[in-house]
Amino acid sequence: MGPQLAAVGPAIISPRFRTTLPCRTRPRGLTSWRRAALPKDEDYYLIDAEESIGDGFSFSGGKYGDGPSKSDEWFAQGKMVNAYPVYGAKGKAKDPFFGLTMGSGSQSSDDVFRWFCMEAGSSSNPKVLLIHGLPSQAYSYRNVMPVLSDKYHAIAFDWLGFGFSDKPQPKYGFDYTLDEYASSLESLVNAVAPDKLSIVVQGYFAPIAVKYASEHQDKLNHLVLVNPPITDKHVNLPSTLASFSNFLLGEIFSQDPLRASDKVLTSCGPYLMKEEDAMVYRRPYLVSGSSGFALNAISKAMKKDLQAYIESMRSILRSNSWKTKTTVCWGMRDRWLSYDGVEDFFGGLNQKIVELPMAGHHVQEDRGEELGNIIRSILR
């Protein structure tokens, strides 16, 4: 029987928000809509939270308040897991602009990084590791995990720099390079799934997971790639993500919660999201600058090394030594990664492709239950 994930390290308190700034008034019960600038009228982004009447700050349709939030609830259900050693000993992290010592959220752990993990299902069931894309969180799999939980032990985690996991200031224990992410993934897998497992990975972290899988095929039952960058057209980040890597402006844009969470979600697919869910994605950028600095660093790393990792992934999947059962799931309404050439590449390798007509880039966010059932049928 595999081990249950154990909570480690000091307790972390998920902060709540409160402010006395005035807000617009609106009768309770009305919904607040925000449409993205999209080509088709049926493609929209919905924020449907009630707005408070004079007791909070209206923020894109919602509010900060003293009551429990989805973010609090999600955090309370998860656990912190220690994995991947902190390199070097460079003292307290300082901000890159003024040289001031940064808050605890930007500091490295003492010796080993802490990862936020969520699990569902019995630990005696076959393990499935669910890996989110860029930029996202384990929260994106919240509707996938219940579908898998009766037959599998599903584990989702936040990458370092995202969600509730550690977000050290770049150059103070973790630099957010793709090589570091590949090495840290191995360490995390050893901590949460020391025996056999299947991996589901979405988006721009797929090449990192494929690199891991190629070196540990003996551990893998199945690999499911969800909208991975695979063709020559995918080697450049979309403008929404590339903007975070720009000199100076990237540092500014990555500190904006609406740019770092809302805009990236609305720009890559036809998302329909409640305000309470959108707030979970915004939260890391609202409580600390560490999430923004991490996003800036990983965007620069992706811009520099993504092409090489995609080329490596293609070589691995084409190789005669690749024996891992592989399936591709593709959200057909992905606005970041074109489907052109995807079918030719994977079809030529006799690897199955499952198309999801109504899903965008973050398939698990857009069509979570549907993706969960597809994963069940693949792993059966």
UniProtKB/TrEMBL annotation:
Q: Which UniProt keywords apply?
A: Hydrolase
Q: Which InterPro entries match?
A: AB_hydrolase_1 (IPR000073), AB_hydrolase_fold (IPR029058), Haloalkane_dehalogenase (IPR051340)
**Protein's name in the database:** AB hydrolase-1 domain-containing protein
Pfam families reported in the protein's UniProt record: Abhydrolase_1 (PF00561)
Which GO MF terms are attached to this record? Answer: epoxide hydrolase activity
The AB hydrolase-1 domain extends over 128-366
